[in-house]
């Protein structure tokens, strides 16, 4: 029972350290050994793809590029739309948070004090708003790219920068959305948060390291 009363102090920081530590490790691998990460391999392929766009300007290539950018744009729009819906839903839940905390008074659900509940929703709002911002910026970059590629006198360097910027914004928006899942489950207590963090890190590891293919293979 004593341990249950301190679950928030034990499992919540452990969950956050696990999530942050994984992304620090991912950033280290991306910087020093990009070929072992899906993110690094995709970045290399994307740069080669951007160079091909610039060098091979014809109608067939242009249509394929526009279609590819449109798919990325639609993905970012979907991410932004889902995020804003979750923000609205979270706002409705927050409005009744005080009454709901009475239903979750068991020690299994961790602390339900006003400060703790407020902290939970602040974290969730922060990540969701950041995710929405990044997804929206990705959409702006892809729209700008579609415009640039429709004119004949675009700047190759600027096009490459916009492709990289848009893809990175899309990645950050998606990743922030994924990280929000354990924070949302924190509402149900620190145990679901910890379990969901372990599951999330395993899934992200499979995506970031388990799907790597040699760029030249």
From TrEMBL:
Pfam families (alphabetical): DUF599 (PF04654)
Annotated keywords: Membrane, Transmembrane, Transmembrane helix
Residue stretches spanning the membrane: 12-30, 77-98, 125-149, 183-205
InterPro entries, sorted: DUF599 (IPR006747)
Listed PANTHER family: PROTEIN, PUTATIVE-RELATED (PTHR31881:SF11), PTHR31881
Identification of the protein by name: DUF599 domain-containing protein
Naturally occurring in which organism (per UniProt): Papaver somniferum (Opium poppy)
């Amino acid at each position: 029972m004593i341990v249950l009363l301190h679950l928030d102090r034990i499992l919540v920081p452990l969950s956050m350290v696990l999530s942050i530590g994984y992304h620090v490790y991912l950033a280290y691998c991306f910087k020093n050994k990009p070929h072992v990460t899906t993110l690094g391999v995709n970045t290399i392929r994307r740069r080669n793809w951007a160079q091909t766009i610039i060098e091979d300007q014809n109608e067939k290539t242009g249509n394929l590029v526009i279609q590819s950018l449109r798919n990325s744009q639609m993905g970012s729009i979907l991410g932004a739309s889902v995020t804003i819906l979750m923000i609205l839903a979270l706002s409705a839940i927050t409005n009744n948070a005080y009454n709901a905390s009475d239903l979750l008074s068991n020690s299994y659900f961790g602390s339900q004090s006003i400060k703790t509940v407020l902290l939970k929703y602040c974290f969730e709002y922060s990540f969701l708003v950041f995710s929405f911002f990044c997804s929206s910026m990705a959409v702006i970059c892809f729209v700008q790219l579609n415009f640039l590629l429709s004119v004949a006198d675009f700047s190759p360097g600027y096009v490459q920068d916009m492709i990289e910027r848009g893809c990175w914004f899309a990645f950050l928006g998606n990743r922030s959305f994924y990280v929000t899942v354990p924070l949302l489950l924190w509402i149900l207590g620190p145990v679901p948060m910890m379990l969901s963090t372990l599951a999330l890190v395993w899934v992200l590891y499979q995506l970031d390291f388990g799907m790597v293919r040699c760029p030249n293979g």
